Amino acid sequence: MKTTISEVSKHVGEEVTIGAWLANKRSSGKIAFLQLRDGTGFMQGIVVKAEIGEEKFQEAKALTQESSLYVTGTIVEDTRSPLGFEMQVKDFELIHEAVDYPITPKEHGPEFLMDHRHLWLRSSRQHAVMKVRNEIIRATYEFFNENGYVKIDPPILTGSSAEGTTELFHTKYFDEDAYLSQSGQLYMEAAAMAFGRVFSFGPTFRAEKSKTRRHLIEFWMIEPEMAFMDHEDSLEVQEQYVSHVVQSVLNNCKIELDTLGRDVEKLEKVQAPFPRISYDEAIQLLKEKGFEDIEWGEDFGAPHETAIAESYDKPVFITNYPAEIKAFYMKPDPKRPDVVLCADLIAPEGYGEIIGGSQRIDDLELMKKRYEEHDLTGEAYKWYLQLREYGSVPHSGFGLGLERTVAWIAGVEHVRETIPFPRLLNRLYP
After folding, report:
1. How confident is the model at residue 377 (pLDDT cuts 50, 70, 90)?
2. Which GO terms describe its cellular component (predicted)?
3. Residue 250: what pLDDT?
């Protein structure tokens, strides 16, 4: 019977066949230990010379790293294994012998590993990160589907920008200028006026010449937009969503988190509600922490976000930033027009901002004023203004960066490990 490593718990005491690759091996006298992987997980296969015969045993000892094979044996419980099971190998068939596999069990530098990303993905650590990423994606769809959201796909090629064109990739769209999307938000606002609650999940692009551990050129965003919801409503959705995702990873990725050495106690604390501080309070907190040069009106960098997060054991909302440093579409606070109804969600442990969100301007005259201030009077933005002309309502939304969220939940230092094939400032290969 053929099965997979992820399904062996259903076949204890049975003889099964698994198609696998040899991740590693070691031998001790008359026993060989094969570390097998099949894409669904990792499992040890025990080859005993007395049971398999001299010829087959020598063949097992000669197997090379990443060779592919069919392995047949009996599944038994093994409490020492992270999986909880292992195979007592009865026979195996070599499918393809791999020669001189470049990524060996020794240490390799990050550039070497990035050059071999197509192979590095096979390692237990990278496998675990991608499984965590997959669970976050699964839980995202689960959360929004169960809460009445409709998935809408915004275009990737656009004629305008959500937040200005200085950091966009430009291309020619026949005889017009076009850009790779940096956000689907403007289109999601249009969708929210048609469907009420919507979300998108797709690639976005930032031509930002940054080399920090938090930045990618191409990354994935989850962007919900909600009609008839104010800023406070949106904050509640954000903390419920993030809590749901974290708890889903804790429940469904125990082996992967163990492989990554993640401190799950810190993740177990991530349950709504989340603490909130205003931008004003954040400035004061930073000054108390030694950032004496920070002034009101300045945006926060990575060191500032990390210092603020250190005061909390959950993600923390920083609300009501100055209007002058935020996007044109954010609604001013009616009680204080110099700040906007917005929030950034800062992850604990130095992982920085994972969500940016706001209530959007719904007043036509105010949006016209913003258009003039930001020189958005061209035809490219006409349709967006019309959303305030025909049945405007209070509405809010946010965007979560998938890779930063994966990095935080998985406990990975650099976002280049959180996407299958990262696009970095100096990397377009493989």
Report:
1. confident
2. cytoplasm
3. 98
pTM: 0.97
CB atoms under 10 Å from CB of 242, counted, come to 25
Q: Tokens standing for 344?
A: 């950034």
Burial of 171 (0-12, 13-18, 19+ CB in 10 A): exposed
Cα 2 to chain center, whole Å? 33
pLDDT of 185 higher than 70: yes
Q: Is the pLDDT of residue 360 over 90?
A: yes
Listed residue (212, 252, 202, 182) closest to 409, CA to CA: 252
What residue has token string 């490990």? 417
Q: Both 243 and 288 in a single domain?
A: yes
Question: What CATH code is carried by the domain that includes residue 54?
Answer: 2.40.50.140
pLDDT of 142 strictly over 70: yes
**165 has a pLDDT exceeding 90:** no
The answer on 88 and 144 residing in a single domain is no
Residue 163 has a pLDDT of 66
Is the pLDDT at 378 greater than 80, yes or no? no
Host H or E run for residue 23:
strand 15-28
The answer to whether residues 70 and 51 touch, using CB atoms and an 8 Å cutoff, is: no
Strand residue runs (E) in 124-240: 150-151, 157-158, 170-173, 176-180, 197-205, 218-227
Q: Is the pLDDT of residue 425 over 70?
A: yes
* Whether 82 and 136 share a structural domain: no
Average pLDDT over residues 206-225: 94
DSSP-based helix, strand, coil % in the chain, nearest 5:
35, 30, 35
Are 76 and 129 in the same domain?
A: no
Contact 174, 262 (CB under 8 A): no
For residue 217, give both structure tokens.
């050129």
* Enclosing domain of residue 180: 117-417
CATH number at residue 238: 3.30.930.10
